[in-house]
Give the backbone structure.
Amino acid sequence: MSLENGKLGEKNASFQMEESVLNSSEQYLDVDLSGKKKSEYEEKVKISKSHDDTDDLFEDKEYSGNILGDAVEKFWEVIGTFVKKHWTVLRFLMLLTLVVSYNAYLIGSIYHGVSTKESLDYCDDVGFLLIITIVIYISMFYFMVVKTYYRRLWKIPMAKTLYKSVIKPGREKSEIILSNPYASQGAYLTVLVVIAVFIFIDTADDPRRLISAFGILVLILLGFIFSKHPGYVVWRHVAWGLGLQFVFGLLILRWEVGKAVFGCLGRKVSTFLDYTDAGSGFVFGYLVDQKPFLPFLLNGTANSVAEEINSSGSLKFVFMFKVLSIIYFFNFMVSILFYLGAMRWLVVKMGWLLQVSVGTTACESMNAAGNIFLGQTEAPLMIKPYLPDMTKSELHAVMTGGFATIAGSVLAAYISFGISASHLLSASVMSAPAALAYAKLFYPETKKSRTTADNLAFPKSEDANVLDAAANGASQSVFLVGNIAGSLIAFLAFVAFLNGLLGWFGGLVGAPFLSFEYLLGWVFYPLAFIMGVPCGKTDQEAEDECQLVAVLVGLKTIVNEFAAYDRLSLFRAKMSQRSIAIATYALCGFSNPASIGVQIAALSYMAPTRRGHISQVAIRAFIAGSAACFLTACIAGTLIKEDGEVVLSRS
């Protein structure tokens, strides 16, 4: 099935054969645009910000003079000059005062917590503040001490001798060994055997989990059989992608500390997003807070009844106003973090980890890391200048990353359905390496990449200040909310129409139970089985959980994940905790028909010259993104031991 080199060159002559993977963390982290790209990028930024520089368009007003005003102006000039002259000392004093004050507060809070409680709560009490403080201090030590003096360390004669005599020869020998195809294949085979032995030993007391492990092999085999160029598959990409996914799964689902950390994060995220009700409740009133009456305007029995109704929450909230309002608040915060540079730092670090491990190019890795936090149209903006120069395989990997993950903004909405925040967070992290692995399996690279780490730059925010960034984040969410609402209305109405149509046809032959969900339940039944969902009915009243999960997967694939998670909230009472967890991981992705159109439109706008190639790889990327979600579900099913054991958090 593989093509000749010449034929591949004819199809895309602008790229050379072979793929080169850069693995220098220093180049990846300390890069900037160079040459022509740099001038083009700076020109765009200059044009985009030209509206801010309008002072020269106006003539100066005639100044008649004002003694009091001049004195005030002179005072502030003197203060400004003094601050500018002694800024280093003043900044040190301010930081010292801040650090001393904070540490005094921390000591006081710890003393109060210890004196009033038997033990510290490391998620909800002062223990959480202590952990945050330790993390911040370690980070400060790394950036202010380790990173500052790291290069100077190697200039010491003893360090130079150590590097030349031990480190450099060891690195060269390891590169020679790993460059040998038999050695690298042996290493991957060894890792595979270790993982297989671990799984067999770990599942000895619960053999049903082997079905999920078998599902991983089935999905990989299908990806290889239907690969675009099976002969060009680089198994390092696949092995490292699945290996990282497996390690993340062990840390999150099996390690007690990891489970505690993600459980705590899930509760914190839920609490944080609950503050949305303060804003949406003010704007939309009882449609959000479910309190339709004002008891203080009533007397006697009417007052008591009104208070009871308000506190009962019996009035159903409106999805558009309560659930989708979370997106405004979340995008508001993400825009602030992006402006401050926190999002850039996090995405670059994750991208570097994926690049040096999985072996994908800098652009592919950064996009995959961005998809953990951003949406399928926002993440590619980080690599927008390089999209026109990307190979078809790289474009396929970019699109697969968008289909295999979800945006943080809609993740917040899924939590409001009662879906475990911890499982959603872990699914977002685990699906990033899975997306790269399956993308490179399903559409291997056959060309040399032009997008390398030495010309990769992270775009800066174009907002004027923090307030501008926050306002833009909230206003830009209006289109996203409208898009989600419109899609749900149209697709759910279409599903209801199909149910009515199929029920009518089924009734004519004595099968009135025939429906769209019924068909989905059987079409996706084998997939639900290999993911490790318990199949069959345990008694007459029980539901077949495989069929329920198959319906959810079908809704997610044909409609969207919003409809699937909404249905999952209704199915919860009929499903085991294991099935709920597996379904949560399987549904956690944007792989649906509407997203195909969204990605084609967005990427074509960013790279108009590649519109044809983007459309060509879209369907494959959609399938690869879906498979990456199912791989994540299979790994979760392999590692989840007993019902309810790893229910990290429902909130």
